[in-house]
Amino acid sequence: MSEESGPRAIAFFDVDNTLLRGASLYHVGVGAWRMRFISLADILSFGWNQTRFLAVGEDGINIARLRLRAMDMITGHTRTELITLSHDIFDSRLIHRLWPETVAVAHAHLEAGREVWLVTATAQEVADVIAERLELTGALGTKLATVDGIFTGQLVDGICHGERKAVVARGIAEARDIDLARCWAYSDSHNDIPLLELVGNPVAVNPDTTLRRYAVARGWPIMHMKVAQLKAARASKKR
């Protein structure tokens, strides 16, 4: 990370497999099943996709279809219910799966006076809770339409995924009159290449095969984390 500091820069972080191990969607699904939002068959399907995601990242997984299925599960429920669920899954599940190295980098950016924004396909309410609990600047997630605070099953502006991440990141930088050449972005997925190419300081984090090749060819920094390190950090917290 550059030694340059100052308030006029942003560090953008993907969430799944970048800030935490695995897919946040799976853990939202577990919480939804416990609250009887979805069936056992649904959670088993989410579990299978989580296993594949841990093994190969987003390669070979229909993320868009999976995200849309997740949106279906909260249709008819309220924003308040989803926010409550998000706090519960953060405390019971997500906090134990955070990559300590990536979280440390995010906090180092804050300490240097930069803003830190999550940019993720997960629901805005879930992303907001993660950002809030980690004391980050904010989050840019998938916005779900509501009527009188109840989710309708529709999306606002589509899933925050792929090219869409670059669009929303550019928007928030322009709103703050921040030069993107001074900004950072962190991701594990080749789907986030548009976001990574948007900034002056792209970093690949435990990259999938395609992103690894792309990063090596362009000389981008690559962060490597190991499950053993995550387990060691989890064991340390229990002492």
TrEMBL record:
It comes from Cryobacterium lactosi. SUPFAM superfamilies: HAD-like. It holds the Pfam family HAD. Belongs to the HAD-like hydrolase superfamily. SerB family. This is HAD family hydrolase. The keyword Electron transport does not apply. Keywords: Hydrolase. InterPro entries: HAD-like_SerB, HAD-like_sf, HAD_hydro_SerB1, HAD_sf. Gene3D superfamilies: HAD superfamily/HAD-like (3.40.50.1000), SG protein - dephosphorylation function (1.20.1440.100). The keyword Hydrolase applies. GO terms for molecular function: hydrolase activity. PANTHER family: PHOSPHOSERINE PHOSPHATASE, PHOSPHOSERINE PHOSPHATASE SERB1. NCBIfam families: HAD-SF-IB, HAD-SF-IB-hyp1.
